[in-house]
Amino acid sequence: MKTLALIAVSLLAASPALAISRYNSPSMTCEAARAAVLSQRAVILRYPSKRVAGLTLYDRYVRDNNQCDPHQYAGRTYVPTRDNPRCPVLSCQPLPDDRFLIRRPWIRF
């Protein structure tokens, strides 16, 4: 029984599903950034701040609502890329505080 538990723990620890890819969006084209999000379901994109020199901003960007927590939805936002200063991607955003909201909004690429 101990051996089975040890095997299960080692498989979970080595699982690639727990890893998330990180990219620098200014070095990618908009199409490449969007393709990375679509193919991997969720990625972290990093980019320099326009307001504070030397500050790097980052966030988790997702393919759709399925990669967000139940109290969040995938909302459209923009990141700077090599060819587009406003490349549209989706990130998890909190649901509005509206008790009549039955379903999460669904936004697609």
Protein model, in words:
The chain is an alpha+beta fold and 109 residues long. The chain has one domain (22-109). The chain is 21% helix and 31% strand. Strands 1-2-3-5-4 form a 5-stranded mixed sheet, with helices on one face. Strand 1, helix 2 and strand 2 form a beta-alpha-beta unit. The mean pLDDT is 84.
Principal-axis shape: globular
Q: Taking all residues together, what is the mean pLDDT?
A: 84
Q: Note the gap between the termini.
A: 47 Å
Q: Nearest-angstrom radius of gyration? A: 17 Å
The run of helices and strands is HEHEEEE
> Helical residue percent?
10-25%
Helix/strand class: alpha+beta
Q: Which residues form runs of ≥5 with pLDDT under 50? A: none
Q: Helix count?
A: 2
Describe the structure concisely.
The chain is 21% helix and 31% strand. A 5-stranded mixed sheet has the order 1-2-3-5-4, with helices on one face.
Q: How is the topology of this model organized?
A:
Blueprint: H1 2-13, E1 21-24, H2 30-40, E2 42-48, E3 56-62, E4 72-79, E5 87-94
Parallel strand pairs: 1-2
Antiparallel strand pairs: 2-3, 3-5, 4-5
Signal peptide: 1-19
Keywords: Signal
Spell out the key features of this protein.
globular, signal, 2 helices, 5-stranded mixed beta sheet, alpha+beta, about 110 residues
